[in-house]
Amino acid sequence: MTAKKFSISQLILMLIVAVFSLTCLYPFIMVISGSLSNEQDIAAYGYTLLPKHVTFDSYRILLLGSHRIVNAYGVSLLVTSVGTVLSLLLTAMAAYALSRRSFKLRGVLSVYVIITMLFSGGLVPWYIICVRYLDLKDTLWALILPSLANAFNMFLIRNFMHSIPEEIHESAKIDGAGEFRIFYRLIAPLALPVLATVGLFMALGYWNDWFLGLMFVDKQELQPLQLLLRTLISNVDFLRSSGNAAAMQRISAQIPSESMKMALTVVTIGPIVFLYPFLQRYFVKGLIVGAVKG
Amino acid sequence: MKTITATSSGRPSRTAVRRKSGVLKDLYKNRSLLVMFLPFAVLLLLFNYLPMAGLVIAFKDFDFSKGIFGSSWMNPLLSNFEYLFSSDAAFRAMRNTVLLNILFITVGLVFEVGFALVLNEIRHKFFKRVTQSITFLPFFISWIVVGVFSYNLLNYESGSINRLIEWMGFPGIDFYSSSGLWPLILTIAIRWKVTGYGTIIYLAALTSIDQSYYEAAAIDGASRWQQIRHISLPMLRPTVIILTLLAVGRIMNADFGMFYAMVGDASLLFPTTDVIDTFVYRSLRKTGDIGMASAAGFLQSTVAFVLVLSSNYAARKIDKDSAIF
Questions:
Q1: pLDDT of residue B165
Q2: Minimal Cα–Cα distance from A177 to chain B, Å?
Q3: Contact A272 B140 (CB under 8 A)
Q4: Which helix (H) or strand (E) element contains residue B17?
């Protein structure tokens, strides 16, 4: 490169990027600090970057005192794992079928999928179909089925499979393998980079979803974590009424509602942030592959 | 497995199949592919195609017990729409949707291209990697969590920003009752959440530019700034145009998640933040006004369809490979 490694302009650019990065990090730190602070400090000083007195009370109450939170965590975990596995399997199979050059119907079927990207019935008919005709109200399936099939994801995988040489099919055929076996044994392993990326997108979608819960779930025991967090934020008294009163009393005389909110937020973000450093590079690569030929 | 070998043995040669084949023959030959496609197709049918057919409820007097297709037609047929157009709130929601989207698209464009250019100039590899990871992080969290963050910053009693303002000796601002500030707040929130993500495609486009252009320009004595103006920016142009056109195609749709998580039921903020999606949601689930909700949804779907088609057509004109279809 012609530019030197450290010049004034380089420093200015790095400063700009550093400031923006800190802005991105700040709310995370604030929430973690808030979850470790005691209630009196938050009341006196507001949210601070570092907790003045570190306490794990809010996490203890979160785990022991409130069965609703533990339950919501279970719902979110279940929906995310089942949803991601099913969604990836069905989407990849459909993508495989549409990627086969010898499959004459693939043109027609592609159009069938594309139309769903262009036009939608919108919220009202969608809601009524789900509730009145598919009977999804207050079921776990309501949190999984509606976002199982996504045209965009399907095309992302199909495009990748398209680039796998046709000869692989031919030779597998000669060896006597059927389509299912070719898909499972040969193509899926070869398409692993795109399957991992799309799978991550799906998992993220399910973990972060609360819209389906908001639309279809009124029963408390089926509420996913994100929805519970939303309820908690908009309703300060929620914790006092929801928990196991005796257990809470044992832990703390007064329930720290502010730091509890922060603790629940941390717990909600938790899995993503732990996975993030390992997955990010994969993610970025997959995104670029998808974007260059989407 | 026996069945697998049975289907693939004794198959006629390719040309012979083509000569004889009809649709049925092809269907039979590829029945395992069809089976693989079937579950996906059924899901699309249930969750995408049935709702499309369900759009007729915009013209119906919907009765839950009779269902979409059993309910009687409105008399006159367009009553739901008349009702919708006579409502100030509906007009306000449509105006907000379009104006906010224009704001988000333009500010987003400037920030994402700008951030990509800045990152691309930075030579320090490690710094670049770490900051890119950090700025990508907010993309992974839900709008609900962003809602918590913004509440922590903005609420009147203990919000960090209000604490700061008071510390500097000014009176605090009650953000949750000042609707005028929210287009700005929402824009900042989006930029915070998706700038790192949105930058990736521009950054990829920048790194794929042939380095010899820059070397030649440098030999001719072009400064770094001149190189950006005359090489980087023109090379980004097609990407910028296409991404913008595709965003324009979605101008009638708002991110319900963002609005619901950040604004929620704060009706004081509706003058600037109520969009079609939140309006339809409220009419459907809160006020139970299905006629109004379905008419608004119908308009949104049809206008969005026209916009998507035309923006994709335009994108195709500019760069054939970059259009979605």
A1: 87
A2: 6
A3: yes
A4: helix B14-20
Local structure of A184: helix, strand or coil: helix
Q: What is the mean pLDDT of each run of 10 residues along chain A (294 residues)?
A: 64 92 91 83 73 80 78 93 96 94 89 92 92 93 95 91 86 86 90 87 91 91 90 60 50 62 87 74 63 43
For an interface test with A, the pick among B94, B111, B144, B287 (most A C-beta atoms closer than 10 Å) comes out as B144
Contact A192, A89 (CB under 8 A): no
**Contact: A94, B118; criterion CB under 8 Å:** no
A102 touches chain B (CB under 8 A): yes
CB–CB contact B131 A291 (8 Å): no
Q: What is the ipTM score, two decimals?
A: 0.85
Rounded Cα gap, residues B23 and A109, in angstroms: 13
**Confidence (pTM):** 0.85
Cite the DSSP H helix spans in chain A. Answer: 8-36, 39-45, 57-64, 67-99, 106-118, 123-128, 151-162, 167-174, 179-181, 188-190, 192-208, 211-216, 225-234, 238-242, 245-251, 257-292
Residues pairing with B72 in the sheet: B61
Looking at residue B221, the DSSP 8-state letter turns out to be: T
Structural domains of chain A ordered from first start:
9-55 (no CATH), 60-292 (1.10.3720.10)
- Which residue in B135, B147, B214 is closest to A233 by CB distance? B147
pLDDT at A1: 46
